[in-house]
UniProtKB/TrEMBL annotation:
UniProt membrane topology term: Multi-pass membrane protein
Subcellular location: Membrane
Keyword rRNA-binding: no
Protein name, entry field: Heme O synthase
GO terms, biological process: heme biosynthetic process
Main location (coarse class): membrane
Domain of life: Eukaryota
Location of region: Disordered: 400-423
Keyword tags: Heme biosynthesis, Membrane, Transferase, Transmembrane, Transmembrane helix
Name of the encoding gene: LOC18602834
């Protein structure tokens, strides 16, 4: 007992004797402390030093003066780095905040779907070889333009989004970002993406991108509050990106390049009809004039969806007939189109939320399978030419065989020195150094 009290009094004198040491220890305890549930500040230290700073009835031996001085130096050094760490933490939080806002403004997942359709069109229009650098530039420019269009869409619909449950937490209605900031972001992306496509792809591709941005932001967006025809205008907007990719690769618009845009157009109608039926109340609260709002029973909505699913059936045969894909794609396309048509017909017979959601999921599955099959079974220019003229392969192989035989005969006559052998002077034109004399036989 005497030892404990003596140790306690010695430690108290040691802490009170030097003001500098007491100052260091105080800052060290405050720098590494937390609040306990009862409101008492508890230092976050090792168990031995935690017993030193506690006020228990039986205090443990305190550290020596050298240890306290070392703790003081550590505390002073940590205080020197504290402002730098707090600024770095604030910068990271600010970057995460604006990054999340930009991600939501751009509707990144929808924009990436647009990029996927544009990239597919680029590969289909590339012919024999795909330019990877051109593909990357085209996808990057398409991503910027799509993000700009989606951001402008939210700027114009800020009041409508604030009234809907699924959109009221977007950056603009929730007040996480200002309207001038969003407009600056959208304008910068739009100009940069269009300029990139003009420099790295072609002016025609840049024109398609700019026209699609204007059509989506300044025609389709206000039309959503005016007339139900906005769904068909939005389908045109979705059909342009694969055509943009085809033009960026081939430099022209051709009939073969319209197969994937046609698939995107007819696919979007049942996709949007299912979504509009599922979100009827939300769209009505937001003030949007969707096709499903004027159809209380849902029969016309389901009929439109089913009719456009049937329009997708001939696309596989057209792709095979025009030489874009092989016959296997014709079979696969027919199967997946019949599957989505069956889901649409089921929704037409029984117009319930469950059947509409099933048709919506079927539409989500259809598009990636269709594009993957089109890429996997696509035909290059050489394969396309041989498919159009099967006799060409026989003529080509026979001509190559005749050329190889003639070359072999010429080499034999030259090395045997026959009467029809070419004179050595005939090879002077292909000598490495034409100004040197060619040696005789």
């Amino acid at each position: 007992m005497w030892r404990n009290s003596a140790t306690l009094s010695f430690s108290s004198k040691l802490l009170s004797s030097s003001s500098s040491i007491n100052h260091y220890c105080f800052h060290y305890a405050s720098a590494f402390s937390i609040l306990s549930p009862n409101g008492v500040v508890e230092p976050v230290l090792s168990p031995s030093y935690r017993r030193f700073y506690s006020s228990s009835a039986t205090p443990s031996p305190s550290p020596s003066s050298d240890s306290v001085i070392k703790l003081g130096f550590l505390a002073d050094r940590s205080l020197g780095f504290r402002p730098l760490s707090s600024k770095a933490r604030d910068a990271i939080q600010l970057a995460c905040h604006y990054g999340r806002c930009y991600w939501e403004l751009s509707k990144a997942r929808l924009s990436m779907l647009v990029v996927a359709t544009s990239g597919t069109g680029y590969v289909l229009g590339s012919g024999n070889a795909v330019d990877l650098a051109g593909l990357c530039w085209t996808c990057a420019g398409t991503m910027m333009v799509a993000a700009s269009a989606n951001s402008l869409n939210q700027v114009f619909e800020i009041n409508n989004d604030a009234k809907m449950k699924r959109t009221r937490q977007r950056p603009l209605p929730s007040g996480r970002i200002t309207i001038p900031h969003a407009v600056t972001w959208a304008s910068s992306l739009g100009f940069a993406g269009t300029a990139m496509l003009a420099c790295k792809a072609s002016m025609l591709a840049a024109g398609l991108a700019a026209s699609n941005l204007i059509l989506y932001a300044f025609v389709y967006t206000p039309l959503k509050q005016i007339h139900p025809v906005n769904t068909w205008v939005g389908a045109v907007v979705g059909a342009i990106p694969p055509l943009l990719g085809w033009v960026a690769a081939s430099g022209q618009i051709s009939l073969n390049g319209l197969i994937l845009p046609a698939a995107l157009y007819f696919w979007q109608i049942p996709h949007f009809m299912a979504l509009a039926y599922l979100c009827r109340d939300d769209y009505a609260a937001g003030g949007y004039r969707m096709f499903s709002l004027a159809d209380a029973s849902g029969q016309r909505t389901a009929a439109v969806a089913f009719r456009n699913c049937l329009y997708l059936i001939p696309l596989g045969f057209i792709a095979y007939d025009w030489g874009v894909a092989s016959g296997w794609f014709c079979v696969e396309s027919s199967l997946i189109t019949l599957a989505i048509s069956a889901a649409a017909f089921s929704f037409y017979r029984d117009r319930t939320t469950q059947k509409a959601r099933r048709m919506f999921y079927a539409s989500l599955l259809y598009l990636p399978v269709f594009m993957s099959g089109l890429l996997f079974h696509r035909l290059s220019d050489e394969q396309r030419g041989l498919a159009d003229n099967p006799d060409r392969y026989i003529e080509l192989s026979s001509s190559l065989q005749d050329v190889s035989e003639d070359d072999q005969k010429k080499k034999t006559r030259h090395f045997t020195g026959g009467p029809q052998a070419r004179p050595p002077v005939a090879y002077a034109s292909i000598a490495p150094f034409p100004f040197l004399p060619v040696p005789g036989p």
